[in-house]
Amino acid sequence: MFMNNDNNKGLKVYNLLVQKYFISEKFLLTFAYRKLNMVYITRKEHFCAAHKLYNKHWSPEENNKVFGKCASPNFHGHNYDIYVTIKGKINPESGFVINLFELSDILKHDVVELLDHKNLNLDIEYFKIQLPSIENLSVFIWNLINKKIKRTGAQLHCIKIQETENNFAEYYGE
Predict the structure, then answer these.
(1) Per-residue pLDDT for 35 more than 90?
(2) Does residue 111 contact residue 125 with C-beta atoms inside 8 Å?
(3) DSSP 147-172
(4) Among 93, 117, 125, 135, which one carries the catalytic annotation?
(5) I need a surface site. Which of 70, 135, 145, 163 has the fewest CB within 10 A?
(6) Which residues contact 21 (CB under 8 A, 6 or more apart)?
């Protein structure tokens, strides 16, 4: 419990579920905030990849009707931005929810190195079965990194993939 005189207007009592480190009122309240609240942190990475959207069970006309230029037999490419949001409580020793160097290593090794400058339809086994839409790509990336994120003590909150200036998908693991 911590008491504050609050400019002689009476006593305020703060019930804090933290160890009592009384350096200053500001430090103690800041420490309590960090200890009790969920924080979300996002890391952005980038990769380039080609793909083609088509359903092999449909006619070329149906594919063109549904997917338009994305059904081109010659494929097409995108410069993808991926935003990975992690949630957790701040570690009082490091001040981090997750070490961003570690998160960057996971994303570069498990996502960027795998997908960058690849033809998703031809080079990635998963997309030989699934259409490489940004919706399916966001689920694929979630499944690639979720266990590694959990091992850090943090929790994967969201994968957001921006395919074009106007199109993006968000996946929350549901």
Answers:
(1) no
(2) no
(3) HHHHHTT-EEEEEEEE-SSS-EEEE-
(4) 117
(5) 135
(6) 27, 28, 31
- The domain at 38-171 falls in which architecture? 2-Layer Sandwich (3.30)
158: annotated active-site residue: no
Catalytic annotation on 117? yes
Provide φ and ψ at 86, rounded to 5°: -115, 145
Question: Is the pLDDT confidence value at 139 over 60?
Answer: yes
Q: Which long-range contacts (CB under 8 A, 24 or more apart) does 29-33 make?
A: 29/2, 31/92
| CA 15 – CA 13 distance, rounded (Å) | 6
pTM of the model: 0.78
Selected catalytic residue, list 102, 135, 163, 170: 163
Pairwise CA distance, residues 18 & 41, whole Å? 23
